[in-house]
Specification:
By secondary structure, the protein is mostly helical. It has one domain. Helices cover about 75% and strands about 0% of the residues.
Length: about 180
Amino acid sequence: MVARANDSLLLVCKYLIIAIVAALAAILISAVFYRYALNNAIAWSEEGSKYLMVWLTFLGAPIALRHAGHINIDLVVKLFPPRGRQVFYLIIHLIIIATMGILLWKGVVFSQMGARQVASSFNFSMVWMYVAVPIGSALTCLVALEHVLRSICGIAEPAQGLTEDHTAFVDEVRE
C-alpha cells in the first residue's frame, strides 16, 4: 500500500522536476541573452533560479532514495549475508526516517517564520520557498518507510527484501 502511494506521489514529483528543469533552462538562457546581448539584466533571474533549485533538490531526493541513487559505499554491505544486508538496510532507513522527521518538524517551523517574509525580487511570501523542506522531508520519509517494510520482509525471506537494483531506475529514466 505504501509502495502504491509512493508510485503516485513520485510520479507527480517526476513531472514537477521536469517542469522545474525546463523553467530553469528558460530562465538561465534568457538571463544570459538579456545580460550579454541586450545589456539589460533580468533582476529576478538569480533569485528565481535559486528557489527552483531548492524545490528541485527536495522533490528529487525521495526519487533518488527509492532507486538507491544517492552516493553510497556498499563495500561493507556486500560482506554481509542476505539477511544481514536486510538488517543493515533496516537500520539505515530507520535513521533516514528519524533524520527526515527532524527536518520535517524544523522545516514546518521555518516555513511558518518565512510566511512573514517577502522575497526581495518577487512579491510573494517566502513560505512558498521554505515549504519545500517539509514537503521533501515527508516524501523522503514515505520512501524510507516503504524500504523499512521491505527490509523487515527481507529479514524473514531475503528474496522479498530490499535490493539495490539500478536497472529499474535506468528503465524509468528512459521512459
